[in-house]
Amino acid sequence: MGLGLAFGLLCAWLAGQEQPGLFSIKNPIFWSIVTDRLLIGMMIGFAGAFTRHPVLGFPFRPWLRGPCLGAMVSLPLGAGAMSGPAPGNLSVWVLFGATLLSGAVYGLIIDVVATKVGGEGAALLD
């Protein structure tokens, strides 16, 4: 969860470079970004108990689990980013894709680090 919070603050700060005033605790978009990235950390922490995909049964390793969960949790944030004008010369689709891609990268880093530190599967549940 700590990495999720750190990535949330980093992501909000990076977004604030394009949109001045966004990196402020008074801005609701700031909180949307931070809580989304925090949720990625929480979901990956819970999903670490699964070493096999719970429905399809294939091995669910950190390098796959983290990016999949990170991108999936980022979908609402990316859809929200498409609801307004994109900053500068970016299209809303580029903003959507960048949001999902950054969520996948953050998810990968969080899952790999969390697995190295805390373990996974049955060892995590002990």
Rg (C-alpha, Å): 15 Å
* Percent range of helical residues: 55-70%
- Unreliable parts: none
Q: Tell me, what's the shape? A: elongated
Q: State the helix count.
A: 5
Structural class of the secondary structure composition? mainly alpha
Count of distinct strands: 0
* Sheet with the most strands, sense and barrel status: none
Distance between the termini: 19 Å
Strand content: under 5%
Topology as H/E string? HHHHH
Oligomer: single chain
The overall pLDDT average reads 89
How many discrete domains? Answer: 1
Structural features:
126 residues
Written overview of the protein:
There is one protein chain. With 126 residues, the protein is mainly α. It has one domain (2-125). It has 5 helices and no strands. The protein has helices at residues 2-18, 28-47, 62-81, 92-118, 122-125. Helix 1 (2-18) runs antiparallel to helix 2 (28-47) and helix 1 (2-18) packs antiparallel against helix 4 (92-118). The longest helix has 27 residues, at 92-118. It starts with a helix and ends with a helix.
Please outline what is shown here.
By secondary structure, the protein is an all-alpha fold. 70% of the residues lie in helices and 0% in strands.
Can you lay out the helices and strands and say which pair or pack?
Elements: H1 2-18, H2 28-47, H3 62-81, H4 92-118, H5 122-125
